[in-house]
Amino acid sequence: MKLFISILPLVFSTISLSGYDAMHEKTPVGEIKILDLPERIALEASTDTSYFSENNGLFRKLFRFISSNDISMTTPVEADIKPGKMRFFVGKDDLDKRIKNTKDVHIKKLPATKVASIGIRGSYSEGRFNQHKKKLSAWLSENKKFECTGEAYGVYWNGPFLPGVFKRSEVHIPIRAKPNPSKSKPQP
Asked: Which residue range is the domain that position 140 belongs to?
């Protein structure tokens, strides 16, 4: 029985990742990293309410869209919290497909972006998101190299059927390098 329990996380993590194109590497749990996200094509569904009040409704809209357009699922998905938005990404094998906006899903080209990221393990909840957003914001406020350029958003690696204790997520905050004040001062 102990052997079964000890290999269970390995089985779930393999099942949850198999067959999906990853848009970038996961940030290790508890670590803060700076990531350079590439330019990418997003499929976005939105709501006027909070992402966490939507109860997988945004996921269902996006999943129906990729299924009906024969687009492969990629990981991770991104979510703006208030107002709620969820983004799936078009993988490299599907970039040449002609897809069009619908009333539920809009196609957006996102520019390359630098973000501060913190890795998380556990169920996807508003409390867990806010807890890690606070940690990442505190780290950024003390960091002398980078400054925030946008709102924090969630990054989710696993589908809704994986038990919460095995799920991985991240909080990202868009950033840029702080201007170097010594370079802008005129030399005497």
From this structure: 28-180
